[in-house]
Amino acid sequence: MISQTMLGLGKKSSVIREIFEYGNRRRAEIGAENVYDFSLGNPSIPAPKQVTEAMLSLLENTDPVSLHGYTSGPGALSVRSTIADSIVKRFGCAATAADIYMTCGAAASLTVSLNALVNTGDEVVVLAPFFPEYRVFAENAGATLVVSPPRDDMGPDLAVLDKLITPKTKAIIVNSPNNPTGAVIEEADMVALCDLLRLKQTEYGTDIYLIADEPYRELVYGDTEVPYIPNYYDNTLVCYSYSKSLSLPGERIGYIFVSQKVKDHTDVFAAVCGAGRALGFVCAPSMMQLVIEKCIDAKADIAAYEKNRNLLYDALVEYGYEVIEPKGAFYLFLKSPEADAGAFCEKAKKYELLLVPGDSFGGPGYVRVSYCVAESTIRNSLPSFEKLIKEYK
Ligand code: PLP
Structure pTM? Predict the structure, then answer.
C-alpha cells in the first residue's frame, strides 16, 4: 500500500486553488475583465530590470558547464558570502557564509528547518492566522502543530501563547509581514514574545527555536519597520525567499540564515545541511544563486501594491467593512459580515468577487483578499464590494 498521508495530500487541493479554478471557468464564460479574482498571492509586478540584465549577462558571459553545474550542497560560497555581508550591512547582525544555506524558496527553507530541528512527537507552535502549508510541513517533519489564536487586532496574544508552550515545544513559526492579514508585528510585541520564549526555555530547561518566515520582509508600506528577529532572540533561523521581494516565485530561490547566536550553532547548521540532503534540497538552482549575488541590492518597485492597498482599504472602510489595516505583504483581511466566512465568499461570487475564507488560515469569520492584481481590477471591483455589503444592511 502506498503512503495514505501523501495520497491524501495529493488528492486534496487547497481551497485557494479551488477558487482559482472556479475563476478560470468564469473567465472563459464571461471574459477575464469581468471576474475580480483576489484568490492567489502571485506577484503582479515585474522582477527588477537588474534581474533580467543579470540573467542575460550570466548566460552570455559564463561558461555554461559551470553556470548550470552543481554548486556545493549549501550553495556557492561567493553567493552565501554576499548574502551574509548584506545581512551584516542591513541589520547589524553578525553573519558569514557558514551561516547561510541556499534553498528553493521559503517553502524549502521551512521544511528543511523543521526537519533539522524536530524529533517525532515535538510540538511546533504557529500564531494564527497562518500560512496553511505550515501544518503540512510541520506534520511531515513529525511534529504536532499547535495553533495559538490571535488578539482581536490579529497581533500575537501572549496570554494565550503562554499556556500553549510546553516542554514539548521545539519551535514557533513567526511570519511578519503576515499572510493572510498583511499585519506586521510591532517591536513592543516582538520584544514581549521573545521575552516569553526565553522565560519558557529557562522554566523547562529546553531550547525553543524561532523560525522567522520572511518572504514578505521587503513588502512594507509607509514608515512600517519590520524588526529583524535575530537581533531580539538568539535561537532564530530566518527562512528567506526572493519569490515576492524580487517577483521570482517560479524560479525557486531563497535561503536559511542560522543566527550565530543559536545554541550549538555548528550542530544546528549541520542538521540543516542534513535535512537538505534527506529531503533532496541540496544545491539550489545554480543560475538563480548567481543572479542573487549580482542583484543583492535590487528591489522590486512596490508602489503599485501600495496604490492598490490604499485604494482597496479606503473604499472597503468607506463601504462599512471591518478591515485589519494591512502594513505589508499584498493581502488584506476583512471581517465577514456573517459568522460563516465560506457562506459570505459564496455570496461574493454572485458579484464575480473571488475571495478566500479565512478558515484554512486559522482565521474563521475572516476573508483574505489578495491585492496583487492590476489596479483596474481593484477599481472595477469596487461597485461589487459595495453591493455585497449592502446585502447585510
Ligand atoms: N511562507 C508564506 C507566509 C507564504 O505566503 C509563502 C508563499 O506564498 C511561502 C512561505 C512560500 O514561498 P516560496 O515561494 O518562497 O516557497
Answer: 0.97
